[in-house]
Fold each of these.
Amino acid sequence: MNHNKPLLTPYTLGDLELKNRVVMAPMTRSRADNKDKAPTGMHAEYYRQRASAGLIISEGSQISERAVGYINTPGIHTPAQVAGWKKVTRAVHEEGGKIFCQLWHVGRMSHPDFHGGELPLAPSAFNPNSKSYTPEGFKDTVTPKEMSLEEIRQTIADFKQAAKNAMDAGFDGVEIHASNGYLLQQFFNRTSNMRTDAYGGSIENRARILFEVIDAIKEVMPENRIGVRMNPSLHGTFGMELDEESIPTHDYIARKLNEYKLSYLHLSEPFTDVSKLPYAEPHIAKHYRPLYKGTLIINGGFDEEKGNKVISAGEADLVAYGKLFVSNPDLPLRFEHDAPLAEWDDKTFYTTGEEGYIDYPLLEEIER
C-alpha cells in the first residue's frame, strides 16, 4: 500500500478490481427532467467525466412509481429508464470505470402530488414533518398510508425487479438504499415504525424487510455485487429521530450482514452534531469496523487527508466523496498531484441543464 496516499491504492471488491479506493457517493442531481424520468446523454457525460473513481455509486433511482418523492429523479423500473442507464454504464465502462446503481424508495418522504392524489406508503401512518420536492416546489409532507402486508410484498418484488433491470442496463452491481430516512430506514426506527406485526416491535422484526429485500435480489444477480447503505446516527433530518434502540438496531443489522457475501456496507458519519445525544454513535467507522467483517465504505465530510487517515487506521476500506466529486470530476487525479480543488456551486445541485453539472473543468483543461 502507498502509505502516503492509501486512497490511491487498488482494491479488490468481491470479483471486481478497483483502480483506487476513492468512491463517488450517490447524489441526487435532479437532471432527469423528461416525461420518462430517464437518464439522458447528459447523464452519460456527467458519469463519464467521473469514471476515474474506483467505484461510482449512481444517484438514487426509484424502484417503482410508488417510490418517487423528488422531482426530476431517474428511475430503474421502465424500459425507457433502462435504455437511458445503458448510455451511462457504457460511458463509464469505456473509461475503465465501475458503477453500481442505488435502488431507492423514499417511503413517507413523498407527497400525494406524485401519486395521483394517493398517500405515500410507509411502515406506519406517521408524518415525518419534513418537505417533499414536488413539481410545484417544496411542500410539507403528509401523514402517509401504513403499508399492508401485500404492499410490503410488492415493494420487495419491486426491489428485485429493479435490481434485474440494473444488471440488464449494464451496472456492475446495486446498492440498496436503507439510509437517510427513506423507506427501509423508516422500518428500522421505532419513531417511524409503530407496527405490531412481523415488521414491527422487536429489533429483528423492524430489520426484517432489509433481509427479505437482499434475499429477493440475490435470486437475480450475484450476492457479491450487492451493497447496502445505512446512516445509523441520522437525527433531526428527513424526519428521522434517534431513540435508545436506533444504534442497537443498526448493530444487529451490521452483524447479520456478515452472514451474506455482500459487496460492501456503506455507512455515513453523522450529518449533524450528535455528540450530546445519549443514544447516538458519533464515530461510525470506528464503531462499525469491528462489527462488520466485509468491505466497509465510509462517507461524510471527508477530505483527502481524513480519507487517507481512516484507511490507514483500518477503520474503512474505501471512502465515498460527494460534493468534492461534483466540482472536481477527476478527483483521484487531483489527490495524486496535490492539485487545488475547485469549489462547488450549491445553487446548481438540483437544477436542470448543463450548468453546474458537466461544465466543471478537468485538471488538464485548467493547466493548459
Amino acid sequence: MMATSASALLTTSLGATPLLGRGKVRDLYVVGDALLLVATDRISAFDHVLATGIPGKGKILNQISLFWFDLLAEIVPNHLITADVNAYPASLQAFADQLEGRSMLVERAVMFPVECVARGFLAGSGWKEYQSAAAVCGIPLPSGLEDGSRLPEPIFTPATKSEGGAHDENISFARMESLVGAENAGELRRLTLALYSKAARHAEGRGLILADTKFEFGRTAKGILLADEVLTPDSSRFWDAATWKTGGAQPSFDKQFVRDYLESIHWNKRPPAPGLPDDVVERTQAKYLEAFRRLTGRDLML
C-alpha cells in the first residue's frame, strides 16, 4: 500500500472500555481482569510524538512482538493471553477494525520499575558512557573499543524507567538491587542475558546484528513474566550484518529516516512536534516492513 500519513491510526477509541493510559505508541485499556494493548501508528523522535504517523507501524510492531513471544517462551513465560480478536470479549467486537493485527490481550502484572537492557555491541548511551568512564553501568570494558564495536561478551546494563518522556537513566546493578531486591535483580539479569543470547543468534542467522535491546518484566502469582513489546525496532538496535563497520553510528532498522529529516529542518526538539513528508513516511514504513521480513521470514500485508 502507498504509505501516506492520512491512513495512519494515531488514536484508538473503544467506547465504554476503560482507557488506562496512552504511551508514545500504545494505548492501554482495562478489560475485566486483563489488559488490552493496542499498538497505534504513532511515532516519536527525540522524546516527542510527531504530528504524523507511519501507516501500519503498530501492526508491524505487534506482529514482531508476537513472533518473539512464541520463539522465547521456553526461556520465560510471557503475559500474552491471545491476539485473536475473535476471542476477545463481546464488548470489543464492534472495534475489530481498530484492533485487528495490532492488539493483544494480556495478563495484568506488577511491573518491575527498571528497564532490563542487554548490550552485545557498543552504541548509543553505552558508547557515550564508555568514552568518559571506560565502563557501562559500572561494568569495566577493554580499552580501544570504538562506536559499534562488539563487546567481549554481552553485558546487562539496567536503567530506570523514564516518566513523562524523559530519557531512561543507566544505573548500576547495585542500584537495581536496591530497587527490586537482590534475588529479583539476579533473576532478571539471568533472564535478560538468556533472552538476548537466543534472539541475537536468531537475528544473526537472518543477516542481522542485535546490538542491544531492552526488556520489561512483571510478576503475577505465577512468577516472573516477560511483558510489553519485545525485540521490535522501537526497543532494539538491529543492524545489517553485511554493512556493519566499527568507528561510527550504524544504520538501524528503525526511525533513522525520521531523525535525519528532523535534523535537516533544524527542529528545536520542543513541542509542537512537526509532521513528516510522505517520502519520509514511505521510507520509514518500508524499513519497518523489512525488519519484520528479515526477522520472521514472512511478508506482512498491511
Amino acid sequence: MSGSPRPRQFVVALTGGVASGKNAVARRFEALGIHVHDADAAARAVVEPGQAALTEIEFVFGADVLGADGTLDRRALRERIFDDAEARRKLEAIVHPRVREWLRRRVAKDRGAYCLLMIPLLAETWPQYAFVDRVLLVDAPEEAQIERLMRRDGVTREQAQRTLDAQATRAQRGALAHDVIVNDGDEAALDAHVAALHAKYLELAQARSRPRA
C-alpha cells in the first residue's frame, strides 16, 4: 500500500584499525552507488564554529584550544588530552553523542538500497551503535598497518606502534564483525570482496523490505 511506512534503512557499519584500508573499501562501495557516511566527517562537522559542541569544549578545556579565528585548534586539544584519560573521556562525552546523532540523521535521509557508516572507533563506542544491521571489519596484519602508517604519516616505527596500541584490539573488533575483509595485499584484490558483499547486502536489504505474508 502506498501509505505504508517506509522500512528503516539497512545499515552496515564499516570499521577497522588505523591503516587497515577502510577508505579503500569505502571508495569501492561508493563506486557501486552506495552512500558512505563517515564518523570522522561527523566529528569535524559537530565542532565547527557556532555548534554547541565547540562552545562546550571551550568551556571545559579553555579558550586556548581555539585558534585566533575561533575554530578548534585540534593540535592544542590533542596535547591537552594526551596521556590524560579523564580529559579524553570528557571530550568523548561531548563529541560522541553528537556524532551518533549526525550519522542517524544521514541514515534517516538516505534513499539508497542500503548505506554504510564508516566508524573507526566502533569497538571503542559499542554498544551505542548496536542499531546497525551488520558490521563489516577491514582487517590487516599489524606489520602491514605499521608499514603503511610509517609511509603515510612519516612517523617512526615506535610512534606507529603506539598508535596501534592506543586502539581497540583486533579481538575486540573481530567480536563485533559479521563480515571480514583481510586487506593484506594489493588494493585491487579488494574489488572482488566488495562486489560479493555488495550482492549480499542488497539481498539482505531487499529481504527485510519485503512485506510479510
Amino acid sequence: MAYTAESWPITAALLQFPGINANGLHINDADSSEWVKVFREVKEAGFAHADLTDSWVRPGDLSAARLEEFKLSAAEAGIGIPVISAIRSSVIDAAHWRENLAYSHRTLDAAAALGCEVVSVGLHQALTREQQRQLWFWTIQGHTDPVGDSQTWNDAVVRLRELGHHAAEVGILLSLEMYEDTYLGTGDSSVNLVQDIGLTNVGLNPDVGNLVRLHRPIEDWREVLAKTLPYSNYWHVKNYIRDEDVARDTYVAMPAPMDAGIINYRDAFRTAISAGFQGIICTEHYGGDGLSVTARNQEYLRTQVLPKQDGYALGTSQVAQGRLQPADAAPVS
C-alpha cells in the first residue's frame, strides 16, 4: 500500500546537535542520559523518527554494548531510528579512503544492530579550515572530485558497490547523497554512478538543497529531480532562498523553511510519486532553531504536500524503495 500524508515516515535530522558536549567529551563517550535528552527533544518537537546524522553520535564507532545502550535510549524516548546518515566519509578521499571505507562498513553493521532500514553515504569530504570559518560553509569552495578521471570514478564504483553488497547482506538500503562538486554533484553524473554500481538496493538521496545553495550558476533543480528521482530510495529535504543577478555574476542563497524557498516541494513530490518514490524522508535545516524549522517542514509536508488517502498515481521506480511502518505505529528502535 502506498504511503499517505498521515503514514509517510519522516525523520528529523540531528544536524543541530553537536558531537562534543559542554565538557569537551565526544557524544559517543557521554552518558546515555545525554542521548535520551536529545531523543526526547526530537519527540517533543513532533517527530516519531530521527535520522542518526553522524555529526552527532557516530554509531559505527560504538561498541556492541554501547550500541545496545543507544538503542535502548531511543526506545526510552519513544523515537524510531530507521536511518543513519554517514557524512563526509568519502571512499575516494585520497588520504583517508581506507579508514572511511572501514568506517562505512562498521556503520552498516551498526545500522543492522539498531534495526535501521537505510544508510545514507556520500562522496563529500571534510570541510576545509577556510570553510569552517564561514557563517555558511558552502560559500567557500571545498573539495572537488577529479573530472574525467576514470581511475577515481572506477574506485568510487567498486568501493560503493562493496558497501552495497554488505548492505544487502544485512537487509539495508544504501542511499548515495547528492553533493556539489562530487561524482554525485549533477543529475547525469549521479544517475551514471548508481547505474554503474548496478545493485537494486543502492539508490540516490536526491538532496537538491545541497546544490541550490551554491553562490554560483547551478543546474535547474527541476531537471535534477526529474533525472534522479526514479533512482532514489531516501531523501534529505531542505530549502533555500536564492537570488541571481546574472549580469553582475552575483548569486546569493541562505536557508529557509521548505515552504518559503526556491524549491517548490509541492511540485517536487508530484514528480517523485509519479516516479514511484516511496522512501523515508528526512527534514533538514541549517542555522537558528533548526529543530523547530524541521518540525515546521514536517507539518508542511503532511498538510500541504504529501498525498491524502486518495493519493496520486504511482509510477515504477528503478531501485528498491525504503519501507517503514506508519508514523502512528509504535516507533522502530
